[in-house]
Amino acid sequence: MKIGIPIEIKNNENRVGMTPAGVFELTKNSHTVYVQANAGFGSGFFDEDYQEAGAVILNSIEEVYASSDMIVKVKEPIEKEYALIKPNQVVFTYFHFASSETLTKAMIKSNAICIAYETVEDADGALPLLVPMSEVAGRMSIQQGAKYLEKPIKGRGVLLGGVPGVPPGKVLVLGAGVVGIQAAKMAAGLGAHVTIMDINMKQLRYVNDVMPNHVVTEFSSEYNIRKRIKESDLIVGGVLIKGAKAPKLITKDMLKDMRPGTVVVDVAVDQGGCFETTKATTHEDPTYMIDDVVHYCVANMPGAVPCTSTVALTNVTLPYIVNLANLGWKKACDMNPLLAKGLNIVKGEIVYEEIAEAFNWNTKVLQN
């Protein structure tokens, strides 16, 4: 198979779909890998590294798409790429369709095979291709939140860890999944007082067992959220419903109950966000203010630390990529029902129900 690795052209996205080590595995299996010139530069990989691994370097993104049977990316295609995608071409990447009707319609029109990293499942229902980026984003949420709490950038002026004689800052984490646990771990490491909420008591018991005493658990309800936001300095949203839009746990009217300079970080922004006031931002312009509350809603947070993120991503995607390349997408998905759950749109048809539900669409209507 011919596999293409284009440059990511989303704003300030420095990751790349595959490391040279991944290319080596594919070429070892007699596949051809086309890498766009300088695609790996932001992640610390150079064209010479890819060539030594067996890749063919192409100068333009148009050449990469035109030459490839399968495109391996990091982020969803943006408008400039829509016309480059060919019918029957496999596109393997993070899509997060539920957050973008425009992208969904474009991929339906393309007649491509869209396999989404974020809906591939393990036997236990975990999302193995989402986990490493959720780990990065969860840890970054505290790193960024701590920064934006500084007064010169309109935060409350709170040091999360406090100092002797001054109490630490208070962090509220919504969701006790991968993002939430990593956020709580980082906040606790800084010395903050952390409250983590979820509706899954099994997860809360796990958090209670593994976290230090200054991380407390609480059942997630609107009443409890409304109570906690009044005293929180930093609020992290990390809830996830597989393939569907995130629930709105914090509504616009709740902002008036927060103290001026409170920072909210919505890690669920890729799936539409779990705050009603969320709108996707970029690393170039990451924050905005509503009712004196600082909103950080960057849709590709791990793109800011690509040297870590690209390697972490390739570690988990490569076995699936090799499988798709060796067997072809249909046979690979027939033989592996967990990979098949990554199929979102196939040749103009939505095959992942939650996507149609996100827009209240009838999939049969879309096909006509």
Automatic annotation (TrEMBL):
EC number, as in UniProt: 1.4.1.1
Every Alanine dehydrogenase/pyridine nucleotide transhydrogenase NAD(H)-binding domain range: 149-297
Keywords: NAD, Oxidoreductase
Record keyword Cell membrane present: no
Matching PANTHER family: ALANINE DEHYDROGENASE
Enzyme class: oxidoreductase
Similarity remark: Belongs to the AlaDH/PNT family.
Molecular function GO terms recorded: alanine dehydrogenase activity
Reaction catalysed by this enzyme: L-alanine + NAD(+) + H2O = pyruvate + NH4(+) + NADH + H(+)
Domain Alanine dehydrogenase/pyridine nucleotide transhydrogenase N-terminal: 4-137
Domain of life: Bacteria
Name of the gene this protein is made from: ald
Coiled-coil regions listed in the entry: none
Biological source species: Flavivirga jejuensis
Classification via SMART domains: AlaDh_PNT_C, AlaDh_PNT_N
Protein's recorded name: Alanine dehydrogenase
Keyword Transmembrane helix: no
